[in-house]
């Protein structure tokens, strides 16, 4: 009996470390909750002969509610889908039918995009672990010379900053933390809002996402739609891509919101269909926020420069921690600027089967974060990079965790020396 128990324990431990099964929950794209990707090992991050000195973090807000157009689509389409599904005898199995019958959307348009309770938990927990890894930097005593918090002008990043502070200092102090008034257009936290070329040629250009559009209209998606329709017991002509996509997104959001409750909207999907919907999302983000177009990641140089400005400055030990609460668009462009998760071949509508590094479920979950930590090693400063709290190696130092500042500076020379944002973005004086 004890042996069996021990074995079960070991197995479950092994599964949480390196998960054995490929599961649906691992393919929810940018609406994945952080608990599936974050590193929960909060041991001290120490390197022989080196002392941690400062940190700079870029943090996507935690799990949020959908946007208002999504909320209204969910309110109008999901009950219709439910009627259709429940009217079919041979649809999805019984327990799911019951929870589908009882399902309701228990928030409204007024909650659109707001941080959820799970989003708050995510922030508290990341803060606690960062403090435990690097107590020299993330002191539990607050001072506004040590800490530099910033967020964008949105409720979800503001609330994320507050809960992060709560994780570091506790509730009474978190209320007194100095947060500067957010800028409407922040050139570091949300640089892309100021980049005309990117907005015109990528963000608002349907051609920029043609790979995703082609994929969505293609045979892989059609095959999955047919399978899903069959599972639901409806005719395939009565299942549009949009309706299937609302169900997939609701499955993702509801999985993110609650650690315990299972969303009935996940029932129509299995790993294979979730992977196909995930790929449609990955394609979109690759071409809008990732490697698809040069301007997308080149324009992240002001944020990269801000990081090196803080960590490379040896004239002052303050601020110890610079913490920026922002959005998926910033995190993805920064990852691409750094050269992380770069696939040899661009993602296209017809290379779904190739192994890829660019997986939004892993690299762009809610609360996604990149941290740079500077260490003083003798007379030299080295940087450690963390993504989702896991150590990642920068392309400037593929063979070591710590990367000397000199190497970072020479590898990213172009970013540091040729960062003329307004030129690359074709911003004219009139619309600056
Ligand atoms: C946790 O992280 C520490 C420091 O990085 C490492 O030495 C240790 O092996 C890790 N523990 C586990 C269980 O992975
Ligand atoms: C510290 O907080 C005060 C207000 O309490 C503010 O005026 C000052 O600018 C802050 N200093 C820094 C470095 O943020
Ligand atoms: C689609 O659904 C409508 C009503 O919801 C029904 O009248 C129609 O017959 C269905 N079409 C197919 C092809 O199942
Ligand atoms: C740059 O902006 C100007 C004026 O807005 C426009 O005429 C021109 O075509 C743009 N150039 C590029 C390369 O986008």
UniProtKB/TrEMBL annotation:
InterPro entries: His_Pase_clade-2 (IPR000560), His_PPase_superfam (IPR029033), Histidine_acid_Pase_euk (IPR016274). Residues 1-19 form the signal peptide. Keywords: Glycoprotein, Hydrolase, Signal. Pfam families: His_Phos_2 (PF00328). This is Multiple inositol polyphosphate phosphatase 1. It comes from Nicrophorus vespilloides.
């Amino acid at each position: 009996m004890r042996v069996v128990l021990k074995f079960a324990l070991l197995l479950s431990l092994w599964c949480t470390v390196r998960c054995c099964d490929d599961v649906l929950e691992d393919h929810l794209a940018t609406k994945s909750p952080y608990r599936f990707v974050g590193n929960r090992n909060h041991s001290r991050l120490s390197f022989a002969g080196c002392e941690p000195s400062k940190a700079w973090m870029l943090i996507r807000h935690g799990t949020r509610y959908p946007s208002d157009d999504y909320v209204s689509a969910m309110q109008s389409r999901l009950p219709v889908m439910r009627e259709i599904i429940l009217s079919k005898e041979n649809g999805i199995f019984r327990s799911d039918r019951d929870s589908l019958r009882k399902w309701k959307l228990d928030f409204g348009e007024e909650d659109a995009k707001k941080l959820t309770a799970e989003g708050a938990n995510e922030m508290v927990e990341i803060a606690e672990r960062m403090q435990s890894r690097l107590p020299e930097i993330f002191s539990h005593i607050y001072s506004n010379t040590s800490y530099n918090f910033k967020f964008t002008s949105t409720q979800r990043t503001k609330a994320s900053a507050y809960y992060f502070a709560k994780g570091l200092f506790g509730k009474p102090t978190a209320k007194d933390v100095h947060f500067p008034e957010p800028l409407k257009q922040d050139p570091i936290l949300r640089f892309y809002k100021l980049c005309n070329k990117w907005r015109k040629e990528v963000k608002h250009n349907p051609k920029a996402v043609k790979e995703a559009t082609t994929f969505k209209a293609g045979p892989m998606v059609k095959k999955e739609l047919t399978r899903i329709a069959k599972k639901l017991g409806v005719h395939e002509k009565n299942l549009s891509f949009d309706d299937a996509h609302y169900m997939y997104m609701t499955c993702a959001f509801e999985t993110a919101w609650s650690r315990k409750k299972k969303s009935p909207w996940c029932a129509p999907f299995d790993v294979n269909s979730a992977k196909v919907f995930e790929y449609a999302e990955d394609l979109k983000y690759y071409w809008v926020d990732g490697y698809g177009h040069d301007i997308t990641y080149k324009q992240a140089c002001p944020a990269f420069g801000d990081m090196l400005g803080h960590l490379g400055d040896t004239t002052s030990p303050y601020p110890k921690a610079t913490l920026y609460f922002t959005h998926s668009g910033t995190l993805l462009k920064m990852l691409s600027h750094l050269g992380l998760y770069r696939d040899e071949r661009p993602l296209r509508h017809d290379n779904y089967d190739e192994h890829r590094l660019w997986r939004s479920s892993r690299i762009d979950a809610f609360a996604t974060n990149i941290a740079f930590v500077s260490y003083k090693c003798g007379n030299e400063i080295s940087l450690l990079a963390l993504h989702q709290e896991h150590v990642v190696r920068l392309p400037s130092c593929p063979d070591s965790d710590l990367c000397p500042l000199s190497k970072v500076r020479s590898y990213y020379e172009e970013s540091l020396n040729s960062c003329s944002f307004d030129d690359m973005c074709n911003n004219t004086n009139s619309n600056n």
